[in-house]
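U., I forgot to send this yesterday:
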Amino acid sequence: MIHVPTAFFIFGAVAFLFAIKMAADGIGRGEASKVLIWWCVTFLCLAGASLIMALRPFDPVGGRSGLPSLLLLAGFGLAWRGVSTFAGTRAPWGLVVLGPLIWLAAWSQGVFADDGHRLILVSIVVIFYMTASGWTLITRGGGL
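Result:
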């Protein structure tokens, strides 16, 4: 049986290590550093979301605060920005921040009474960002 908080902690720790690696690789690499910095920030957002969720059994309020989902959506939006930069294009900032803004608006209005509704919204936004990332690579990736 998988202990979910431990899995979140391990994922968060690995994402944090990836962020450090991306930052270290991006120093002094010119144009390539932009891509690595986007992915560094992406991994920091994902690490933050995971580590907050890992602490949920000890601080249930923190895990349900909306911050983990906000960081997750910001991370996936920034991942799309990183993929676009890698492919030589730019994902529109308005769409990159739209998912987290929708989440903030819905969460601040108390729209999510249960975890199921939260999961649906987060899933839809993540699917959008990952589809946009894939589409960017297919259409602009030049055989990557």
